[in-house]
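Step 1: inspect the first sequence and its C-alpha cells.
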Amino acid sequence: MSLFNLTGKVAIITGSSRGIGKAIAERMAEHGAKVVISSRKPEPCADVAAAINKARGDGTAISIPANISSKDELKHLVDETNRQLGKVDIVVCNAASNPYYGPMAGIEDDQFLKILQNNVIANHWLINFAVPQMIERKDGAVIIVSSIGGLRGSPVIGAYNVSKAADFQLARNLAVEYGPHNVRVNCIAPGLIKTDFAKALWENPDTLKRATSGSPLRRIGEPDEIAGAAVFLASAAGSFMTGQALVVDGGATI
C-alpha cells in the first residue's frame, strides 16, 4: 500500500474553493480521500466539488460552505460532515484573511482583531470541534496552512505575519496535547504562491522580481506545489511528524 494512500479518509479543507485549499482538496481526492469543500460563498464550493466528482466519481467531494469568522458555522461544518460522510480524519485549516496592507502603525484595531480571529482563533475553534472524534479513534491529522511570513518581519504584512507565527505555536501546543492520542498537528509554511490571496505581492512585475530575486529557485510557487506537502502530512508517510512547520518556499528563507 502506498505511503500516501488516503483511501477511506475524510478531509475537511477550509478555503478550498480556490488557490492552495483547492489544490489540496484535489490532490487528497486523487489519493483516495473524501473531501469537504468549504469557503464562505456556496457557489464556488459547489463548483469545485462538482469538478472533483466528475474527475473522481460521485461522492468523492461534498460542499459545505462556512464563514471561518463564525463559530456556529464551523461547528455546523463538522456536524454536517459527520452526517453526510461519517468520521472526520483530516482537518486542513487553510482559510485566512488579511484586510490590511501597510505598516503596523497604521492598522485599525478592528482589522488587527479580524486577522487574529480568522487566522488563529478560528483554527482553534475548528480543530476543537473535530478532534474529539479523532481522540476517540486514536487517529487523526490536523494541518494548519501558515506562512513563511511567520518566520520573518515585513513592512507591509506585519499583522498577518504575527498571526502566522501564532499558528506555529498553536500547532506545537496542540501536538503536545493530542500526541498521546495519536493525533498529529503540523503546519505548512508556504512562500510566495500564485494565488488571488497573495496578488498584491506578485501582480506587479517589479514587486515580483524583488520577491523572487533572492530565492534559489528564482520564481513564484504554484498552489499545487503545496498540495503534496499536505498529502504527506495527512498520510502514513507523515505518521511520525507532529508539531512541525514544513517550509515550502523555493528556498527563500535560507
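Step 2: inspect the second sequence and its C-alpha cells, then contrast the two.
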Amino acid sequence: MNQSVATPSFFHRTLVGVVGNIMEWYDFAVYGFFAAILGRQFFPSDDPMISLIASFGTFAGGFLMRPIGGILFGSIGDKIGRQRAMYLSVMTMALPTMLIGVLPTYSSVGVLAPLLLIIIRLIQGLSVGGEYTSSLVYLAESSPNNKRAYNAMWGTWGATAGTLLGSGVGFLIAFLLTPEQLESWGWRLAFIFGGSIAFIGLYLRSGDNTESHVVQTKTPIKDMFTKHWRSVLRVIFLNIGNTVGFYAIFVYSVTFLEQVAHFSYEKAVRNNTITMLLPLLIFPISAKLSDKYGRKPLLWIGFGMMALTAIPLYLLLGQGIRWVTIFCQLMIALPLGIIGGVMAATNAELMPREIRCTGLAFSYNIAVGIFGGCTPLFITWASEYMDPGQAPGYLVAAAGLISLVTLFFSIKETSKQPL
C-alpha cells in the first residue's frame, strides 16, 4: 500500500475513534461543572449541601450504569464489530444530551423534573459505557505493535479534549453572561451545544465501513466471567488511580475551588480549563516513550507521583493563593498526563482478543463507574466530617497507591505482545 493511501486511512480511523469520546466526555464534564446550578434547579433544598449531594448523586448514577452499557456494547463489539458498537453508542448519547438543555426545572413541573434528569443520565451512562473502550480497542487493534500506545492514546486524548471543551464552554458562558442569566437559562446552552457535537460524530461514523470483523467467541460475557476473570480484576484495580484522580482534579475541582478556596465560578472554571491543557501535551510524549521503553516504567512514575504528592498539593490548593493554586492543579494533573498516554494501550493489551471489547468495557467501567463516578459524591460527603481541603488529597493518594500495588504484584510488561 502506498503512503498516499495509508496516511488518510490512519487519519480517518483516528478521527472516527476520537470524535465520539470528545462528545461523550464533554457531556459528563459539563454536568460536573454545572452541578451546583443543576442542584438548585432540579433538587432545590434549604441546605445547599443537600442540593449539591443530590446533583452529584445523579452524576454518579449515570456512572453506575456504565458497566451495564459496557457489557451491552462490548458484546456487540465482540460479536458484530467494533465500528458497529461505536456507532450505536454515540447515537444513544446524542438525543439525551440535547434533551437536558430543554428540560423543565423543578419550579415548572415539580418532582417530574429530577425524575426526567435521572432517567436521561442513566441512558447516557449506558452510552458512555460502550463508547470509550470500544474506540480504544478499535484504535489499538488497527495499530502496528511499535506504535500501539501512540495510536491508541488518541482515544484518551479525545476524552480529555472533550472534558477540556466542556470546561472551556462553561467558562465562556460564565464570562459572557451575568450570574443571574447563567443560573436561569445559560447552563442550557452547554448541553444543546453538546448534542450538536454528537450528531456530527454520528455522521462521521455512519460513513466508516472499513472494519473486517471476525467473531472470536459467541459467548463473550460468559467467557469473561469464567475464563478471563483475572484479567478483569487486573484492569479494574489498575484503573482506580487514574479515574479517581481524573474526576477529582478535572470535574470536582470547580466545586472545590468555589467552596474551599473561595474562587468565583468564572475563575474556578478558568483554572480548570488551563490545567487540562497539560495532559493533552503530555499524552503523546508519554505514549511515545511507552512504545520505546515499555508500559510499566511510565506507570510506575505516574502512580508513584500521585500517591506521594496528592495530599500536600491539595492542602496548598485549598489556601486559595492565586499562583500557588494553578501550580498545584498543574502538578496534580502531571501524573495523570503520564498515566493517560500509556493506559489506553495497556488496557487493550491486558484483555484477550476474544473478549476484548466486552471484558475491557465491563472492567474499565466498573473502575470508572464505582470509583471515578462516585468521586465527587464521596468527597462532598467526606467534607461534612473532615477538613474539606483534605478530603480530595487523601482519596487521590489512596487510589494511586491501590494502582501502584496492582502494578507491582500482578501486571507484566505488555508493550511487545501482538494483539
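Step 3: confirm your contrast with the notes below.
The chain has a mean pLDDT of 83. The chain has one domain: 15-207+215-410.
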